[in-house]
Amino acid sequence: MHFRKALNSVLQPPHRFKSTGSTKKGKANTVVYEEKGLVTYINKYSERTSGNFHQALQDMANTYQQIADFKSYRDSHLQTELFDPINGSVLTELDNISKLKKAVTDAEAEVNSARKGTEKNPQDQAAGDRLSRANGNLSQAKEKLQRAIDSFKRDDANRINMFVQGAQIQQEFYKKAADAFSQLVANLNTIKERSTNGMLDGSNNERISYDKMNMNQYDEPGYSTTIKNFSSPAVNHKEMNGRCKCRALYDFTAEADDDLSLRKNDEPTILEQVDDQWYYGELNGKKGHFPVEFVEKI
């Protein structure tokens, strides 16, 4: 049942943010949010329905599309206001401080080595000169390190402000998401009441093309009705013309028992395209599902 797969992938943080890896014709990598996959899935089934049920599916799809848009806006701003500055300046400064600390450690080791030389032969002028140079180098190394640390500390307020901006961006996202789902709850309750009242007074004449669906009311606990794959050739890809090899663009960790874990550059065989989001394939004698966007056909 791939509706649950699509929904679970939205709820699992490790799989919220996936790159398509598409760089054809100079296109930069784009980001695929799992909500968009869920929207596609819901819209596909809502086309076969009408009336209140159709409206409920449409409201769900619209809300999840909003969430995907909110995420895109949030991630773009986090990249600009937080991640880019951290990568461009903060990490560079910290890396420089680490190198200066190592330089101090090396200078101290040179001083200790030179001191041992003078202890063995106090009259050796070369050994004395070496110790003098080593002490001078150590002093310079310590001064450079201290200047770098002081400079880093002076900019603390600006760095902390980046974290504030990042937190505010997240705060705005979660507020918008909460508002969107609050509106969805209100809309669905209205639709539910309209449907219930229509059934009671006999005015609910909506028709749903159940003959176009394979419905199983008892397929999964927790769902009154579970929507299965359509028998429509446009959706059902079970009868593929031969097997097809593909290459994994990214690592994929199985999310369910019937999933197939992949490592980047693995070459599984596609046995079946279940829908627009999932393949069913085989690798090293194991079979299972894996996302369409994680592989490319070869």
Automatic annotation (TrEMBL):
Keyword Cell division among UniProt keywords: no
Classification via InterPro entries: AH/BAR_dom_sf (IPR027267), BAR_dom (IPR004148), Endophilin_SH3RF (IPR050384), SH3-like_dom_sf (IPR036028), SH3_domain (IPR001452)
Location of the region described as Disordered in the Swiss-Prot/TrEMBL record: 110-142
Domain of life of the source: Eukaryota
Chief location of this protein within or outside the cell: membrane
GO cellular component: cytoplasm
Domain SH3 as annotated: residue spans: 241-298
PROSITE patterns in alphabetical order: SH3
UniProt-listed SUPFAM superfamilies: BAR/IMD domain-like (SSF103657), SH3-domain (SSF50044)
UniProt topology in membrane: Peripheral membrane protein
Cellular localisation: Membrane
Keyword field: Coiled coil, Membrane, SH3 domain
Alphabetical list of SMART domains matching this protein: SH3
Family, as annotated: Belongs to the endophilin family.
PANTHER family xref list: ENDOPHILIN-A, SH3 DOMAIN-CONTAINING
Name by which UniProt lists this protein: SH3 domain-containing protein
Source species of the chain: Hymenolepis diminuta (Rat tapeworm)
